[in-house]
Design a protein that fits this description.
Helix content is 35%, strand content 12%. By secondary structure, it is an alpha/beta fold. The strands form four sheets. It has an eight-stranded parallel barrel with strand order 7-10-11-12-13-14-15-16, surrounded by four helices. A six-stranded mixed beta sheet has the order 2-1-3-5-4-6, sandwiched between helices. It is globular, with a radius of gyration of 26 Å. It starts with 24 loop residues before the first strand and ends in an 11-residue tail after the last helix. The chain binds 4-O-methyl-beta-D-glucopyranuronic acid. The site of 4-O-methyl-beta-D-glucopyranuronic acid has 11 residues, from loops.
Length: 681
């Protein structure tokens, strides 16, 4: 509840959210940088009529206390007493929160737990619907996943590849401008607060494509990075930098970046030490190496283990980690070569290296084997690395899912990935497997924010950022539960529209899927920009992204028997299921198989008719959403209403274009008419 930067959308932390604490007498027993933030939060929330004390005198209505700073439990009563008992055995991020309606207590082992407990209290009050009553509850919460990270793809200057934020659809970077860190850092603090409120505990602040100018963040830019790290530290978030593997070369310090060269080893050790001096709790590095033209260990005949362990060795003395990305594939493929399959690449490169990485290396694996398409199977590499720390990477920014012009709430997609049955025979979900793997495993995601007044370009895209954090904390939450919270917090004055807003979000991913590339085949997008349809846009390209449509059928044969063998990268039960037409799920049919247009889906419908029907239906649903939104005029704040209205109008146009291009394309290829005789151009 610290004052927000004026004119900036407070997202899910608007002033109404802290109303429950106004005028209250609160007590905070803890110490440290996060406690200082929490104190500011509380002071702003209670306002001039309330107080924030540091002990238990005067019967505070809310107590937030580190367990070890409280007197002996037997001397305590009420919620504090119950919370102390419940907090027994919690880790540093967990909390116990007990409220009896009149008073409440949050007890934790560490100060981060108190901060998370505080935001939980605000959420509970908002979702309970009575903004100024303390909730009645008795909960113990701990994050399911240890690593809950956000990756910024922010360039240090706008002249870099793809603008100031790569794949950013919400304005420019809030971190960098004209090659330097922005001077006014209030927006960064607001962002830190938003992230902490949903449990994010790590952030990398610059693009994984590290252009030469950005390499200077390790040198002249370091004091500014240290200042940003200080801001994040106050919210329990550790700061990471993306680094260029060839940094010693780029900076002109050494003639090589060979990971096995002693001078390179010493160079990185020196860098890590300097950073540590400025940022004692520095998180570490994120590295995109030998991927899409970025330098890496292959340039010296070395492998990923050599590369990752080099940086890990430099950071290890200071407790830092290396996030080594596994998005490695041949981006100069010959489309004539049917044996190379981009989907196989990550597993082919990394699976055999399991167990050889240093303890502070974390492999960062994209959630699907391709690249954040609207529908992909889970990455088999995420399942395979059982002896290596792993984070699964999601993309909040909607690169391939409508670019925050189209409404596409991705929570159902992420939830499906995290709930994936790892063995295919019951047992661990992917989320459980990650939790079990190590205390350096979890999830990360590419942010969708920029310096737009509403952060995300599309007001409703805020839910994706909110929801990613909530799912990372608790993957068992359903998209509906998360959206219930998000709507209650974001639109506190529109209780009558609650269900409408939740439903709008919930259905939007499947609507988007309907009018874009069908049945998991992906990639029918405009090359490079990735917005709007281009059915053959990537068909003869070097990027390895094909649908192979001809007059008889379409899809990619990734079976072991007759195709690229990708299906065989899965654990046996899944490999079997994907291998065969009879068991392959419809929504992934064209990802795994090339089939004739008249092949029948499990629904009984033919593939071609399914394409026609879903495209017509998807575009129709967008019109319905637009009309519904139009009818809400005056019932939500004008700024939000106008923003979403304008985006939905554009989405209607985009969906129409997708529908007509995709349907026309397949009619022309197949010559098979639409059973319902609708116009195909
Ligand atoms: O999806 C692709 C994007 C690139 C991005 C790359 C990656 C940061 O088109 O813009 O580069 O993925 O994940 O590295």
């Amino acid at each position: 509840a610290r004052p927000l930067t004026p004119t900036i959308d407070p997202c899910w932390l608007g002033p109404a959210v802290t109303a429950v604490l106004r005028g209250r007498h609160v007590s905070l027993l803890a110490a440290g940088p996060v406690t200082d933030t929490l104190r500011q939060e509380l002071e702003a929330a209670v306002g001039p009529a309330g107080t924030v004390g540091g002990d238990l005198t005067g019967e505070p209505v809310l107590v937030l206390a580190r367990r070890d700073l409280l007197p002996d439990a037997t001397t305590l009563t009420g919620p504090v007493r119950r919370a102390v008992d419940a907090a027994h055995g919690l880790g540093g991020e967990g909390f116990a929160l007990v409220g009896d309606g009149r008073s409440a207590a949050i007890v934790a082992t560490g100060e981060r737990g108190l901060l998370y407990g505080y935001f939980h209290l605000l959420r509970s009050a908002a979702t309970a619907g009575s903004a100024d009553a303390l909730p009645t509850l008795d909960v113990v919460r701990e994050p399911a996943l240890a690593i809950r990270m956000i990756n910024q793809w922010d360039n240090t200057s706008a002249g870099d590849h793809l603008g100031s934020v790569e794949r950013g659809y919400a304005g420019d970077s809030i971190f960098f401008r004209d090659g330097r860190m922005v001077a006014d850092r209030r927006r960064i603090a607001d962002y830190a607060r938003l992230l902490a409120s949903v449990g994010i505990n790590a952030v990398s602040i610059n693009n994984v494509n590290v252009h030469p100018a950005a390499v200077r963040l390790l040198t002249d830019g370091l004091p500014d990075v240290a200042d940003v790290a200080r801001i994040f530290r106050g919210f329990g978030i550790s700061t990471y930098l993306s680094v260029n593997f060839a940094s010693p070369l780029v900076l002109g310090d050494l003639p090589t970046a060979d990971p096995c060269d002693a001078s390179v080893v010493a160079w990185w050790a020196g860098v890590a030490e300097r950073i540590h001096r400025e940022i004692p709790d520095f998180g570490g590095f994120v590295v995109k190496a030998n991927s899409e033209g970025q330098p890496g260990p292959f340039d010296y005949g070395r492998d990923h283990v050599d590369g990752a362990n080099l940086l890990a060795g430099a950071l290890a003395p200071f407790g830092g980690r290396v996030f080594w990305r596994c998005f490695v594939y041949d981006h100069r493929q010959d489309w004539r070569d049917r044996s190379t399959d981009r989907a196989r690449a990550a597993h082919d490169h990394f699976a055999a290296l399991d167990g050889r990485f240093a303890d502070n290396v974390v492999l960062q694996v994209k959630c699907g084997p391709m690249d954040f398409q609207v529908r992909e199977p889970v990455s088999p590499l995420a399942l395979a690395m059982t002896r290596t720390n792993t984070v699964v990477e999601f993309q909040i920014t909607q690169e391939y899912t409508g670019q925050q012009i189209d409404l596409c709430c991705l929570l159902p997609q992420w939830q499906e990935f995290l709930a994936f049955d790892v063995s295919g025979e019951g047992g661990d979900t992917l989320a459980c497997a990650l939790a079990r793997r190590s205390a350096s495993s979890g999830v990360c995601a590419v942010s969708n924010i920029g310096d737009d007044a509403n952060w995300t370009g599309h007001k409703l895209a805020q839910a994706n950022l909110y929801g990613f954090g909530r799912l990372a904390w608790d993957p068992a939450l359903s998209p509906r539960e998360i959206l219930d919270e998000w709507v209650a917090l974001t639109f506190p004055d529109a209780a009558d529209l609650h269900e409408t807003l939740v439903e709008l979000q919930l259905g939007s991913w499947s609507t988007y899927e309907m009018y874009t590339a069908p049945l998991g085949v992906g990639w029918m997008v405009t090359p490079h920009t990735h917005y709007g349809p281009a059915v053959d846009g990537y068909e003869y390209s070097k990027w390895g992204t094909y649908h192979f449509a001809d007059r008889d059928g379409l899809g990619v044969d990734r079976s072991v028997a007759t195709g690229t063998g990708f299906a065989g990268q899965y654990p046996t039960a899944w490999a079997q299921r994907y291998e065969h037409l009879e068991t392959c799920p419809d929504e992934l049919l064209l990802f795994f198989h090339h089939v004739p247009y008249l092949h029948r889906l499990h629904t009984g419908e033919t593939v071609i008719q399914h394409i026609y029907d879903t495209h017509v239906e998807g575009a129709r649903r967008v019109v319905t959403m637009r009309d519904l939104w139009r009818s809400l005029e005056g019932r939500l704040d004008d700024v939000s209403w106008t923003n979403v209205m304008e985006r939905l109008e554009r989405q209607v146009g985009s969906a129409r274009e997708w529908r007509d291009q995709v349907n026309t394309y397949f009619f022309r290829k197949s010559g098979i008419p639409d059973r319902h005789g609708r116009v195909i151009h």
